């Protein structure tokens, strides 16, 4: 009977999680840039398709975002295992792979076209420490306790299932891991980005707190973006 009770308990717990996930989303008409799905009072934005790949690789990006400073903020060690969630065409992936030369960079994306672009670059540049991972809308498909650092650059606000995705990411993080959330600052009206593609620090903290993450610090040293560092509780 003990085994049966334990199994029933697990099923009940999973059922409760599923019910909670359904309850936290609401649906209503909103901004034209949104999907009509709301989470903690924030409308989720449309995912940028692979057609925007050239924008990710634009020559002005370093000046606009200071990606060198971002990587400096991450304090990447040679042995780090790092997951880039929503890696796109690999703009940050290949920069991090050079630094974490004895570690592994997991380049996670849900679009086959993005993964194909990174695969071609990986072969041409002869990188051996980059692993391409096909994620889903609800999971990053990484092994538990497999990464030291997680990087999410201008992607979180587009996650269709942020609750499920963040639980998946949390599971993949090691206990002393750090999550770097990079989002355009909604507090600054001068940042030339659509409203739904920006976030405030308060909104991010509100959403992450309920999932067992604590804001360690906001580096706030990038031209247009927050660099928020979260830890697991």
Automatic annotation (TrEMBL):
Residues 1-21 form the signal peptide. It comes from the Bacteria. Transmembrane segments: none annotated. SUPFAM superfamilies: S-adenosyl-L-methionine-dependent methyltransferases. The keyword Signal applies. GO terms for biological process: methylation. It is an enzyme of class 2 (transferase). Residues 81-203 form the Methyltransferase domain. GO terms for molecular function: methyltransferase activity. InterPro entries: Methyltranfer_dom, SAM-dependent_MTases_sf. Its EC number is 2.1.1.-. CDD domains: AdoMet_MTases. Gene3D superfamilies: Vaccinia Virus protein VP39. The keyword Signal applies. This is Class I SAM-dependent methyltransferase. Keywords: Methyltransferase, Signal, Transferase.
